[in-house]
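Dear all,

This email documents one entry for the complex benchmark we are building for the journal club exercise. For each entry we list the sequence lines for every component of the assembly. Then comes the predicted three-dimensional structure of the complex as a token string, followed by one or two observations. Please use this as the template for your own entries, and keep the labels exactly as they appear.
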Amino acid sequence: MRGRNAHWFYLAPALALLITFTYVPVGNMVWYSFHQWDGLDPVMEPAGLDNYVRVFTDERYWRVFLISLYYFVASFAQIAIALYFAVVLSFSTRFRNLFKGILFFPYLLNGVAVGFVFLYLFQPDGTLDSVLRLVGLGGHTQYWLGDPDVANISLAGTSVWRFTGLSFVLFLGAIQSIPGEIYEAADLDGANRWHQFRFIIAPGIRRIISLSFILAISGSLAVFEIPFIMTGGANGTRTFVIQAYETAFQFRQIGLASAMAVVLLLIVLLVTWIQRRLLPDEEVTLT
Amino acid sequence: MIKRRNFLGSLAAVALLAGCTGGAGDDPADSGEVTGAITVLTNRTDLATGALPAYAKKFEAKYPGTKVSFEAVTNYEGDVTTQLSSGDYGDVLLIPNTVAVGQLAQFFEPLGGTEELKAKYRFVDEKAYDGQVYGLSIGGVANGLVVNKRVWAEAGITAPPKTPEEFLAGLQAVKAKTQAVPFYTNYKDGWPLSFFNSQRAILADPAINEKFPADPAPWQPGKVEYVTDGLLFDLVHAGLSEKDPLTTNWEGSKPMIATGKVATMLLGSWAVPQMRDAAKAAGANPEDIAFWPFPVQTGGKFHSRIEGDYKAGVSKSSENKATARAWLDWFVTESGFAADQQAIPPAVGQPLPRALQDFQDTGVELVELPAATTNAGKEDQIIKESEIDLAGNIYRQKLVDIARGAAKGDKDSYFAELNERWGKAQAQVMK
């Protein structure tokens, strides 16, 4: 296998998988989005741009995007918490491996399990209320999911709990790739921890921070399983993806739902592109 | 928060399977004799290893040389819908509700003419199209209120309330005099809310299913949706339902009504044996659980809709249709399955189960509403187009949210919105 085309031989399995499971389905989805189809009928009625017109003109379809704002704001908290712990735990701290494990653990849990756990946590007189009473904050208990003003915040909080571990691991890995001598030199120059963070760590991991923001935006546009399991989209917690799911599988409008999915895909691509333009991917130098 | 992939994944699964759609058509392997093996799909995971094989043994004894095996499907609607498009879906199966009546002929064998089968079976028109029947009910249910009558008696009420006002006053009394939650909506699990759609018989209009899709505004005073959804709105608005609807739990609600922590739920008669079992398990008295009609009388009488639960049909792609048909006929007429399940027997002339006899003895007329024929399938189309899931929970959850003050609007504004959305879709579908 030394010919000029040998590289194709090695690429073929990966390409086959990628095409079968990513590009063909996406192609199909785009195809469906121009049709009216219930997912069963052998005949698909061509619909032209009707599905797209409907997604953009009917308020009920695009309004659900506003719910994403809760998750977007929450993702700042998520990145801040993850960054803080990544910095603290990259220096020698007591029990640091234990803390690393604790922080990463939620990300390992299945999203369905997380939903159920938090469902019990947020129940009236559930875990959260009991804890609040125990520490003398009993007056602050409320319907964490039943109150529409609080429900989305509770759900976004659950999401932060679940995904902080992922950001944390990304940051930790990036921080540890910074050579230790730089800190020693900084110490000799009299830099304190804050200075080290400000002038060494933050610039050193800016690529990862920027990546985290891209993930945060696309993630918050595409929230699904936590609200789906915990509230089913009721009480004003319906996200765009839940709406698309209902359109596809409750109302059997696969074409319209595909159009929604295509719109979501385009928005995520667009946001990513804008972000890359605003924050160009410069080479990081630490000298 | 990275979850887009799962969604695309499920669409992809549909996409891959859809590639191989297509009916098998007439099969040369089908000899027309009742012999050989068949596979039966069922949603009753609880019965698939015990009760159902016991029925199969009897069938195999009657028709030597046959072999019936069962395939239990947990997420029946979703999984079987996907299987349908793959062409491989057993020999006898319950017809998923996702199949529109107009599509029945693509996936199921016709079982006979509606008129002809009507003489033998109840509920034949529920899965029929163009005068052909595609599915037989495996047991029927009545619709109404499951109550804990001990709690209601403590509140001073022993007979079923006759009007919505009387019902609301009764719930108020339950709230004032007992510790029970007067009415439990099961909002979180959602599907129990759909029983507000199962009360169409209350106005005693046998043509209601035919008229329904012809009506551009079903949420007007006097119309059935106004009466039923309106009652849901009023009782939630008056604070007579559970405090935090977002954390309800269906499995948990059974012992709650059984022990008197909940007084009332709107369900089907199938729920009565389940609640009684829960009472036994919790050490409460199973006789506390009773079944009452929906609190509306027409012409001085209660009316309760009876309808077939899942309808079973013979797969169009089956390779052993004769045996499949024999099993289906035997199962609905001779197996005794309906009686064992306390359901209305699908064969005409067989006696009602005890719980329903008691119910009928309270003076309720059991009404079988004919399905729409000239407007067959139109209602489903309007539902799809307007995304008002009459037979589901999405818009009723919003209704509950508005009623409890958790979403903007009031009864009039929401009903006006529903009328408008429904009317718009209705105009398109019925044009």
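Observations: Chain B touches chain A at residues 1-4, 6-8, 11-12, 14-16, 18, 21-22, 78, 81, 84-85, 98-100, 103, 106, 187-188, 190, 243-247, 383-384, 387, 389, 392, 394, 397-398, 401, 406-407 (CB under 8 Å). DSSP finds 17 helices and 15 strands in chain B.
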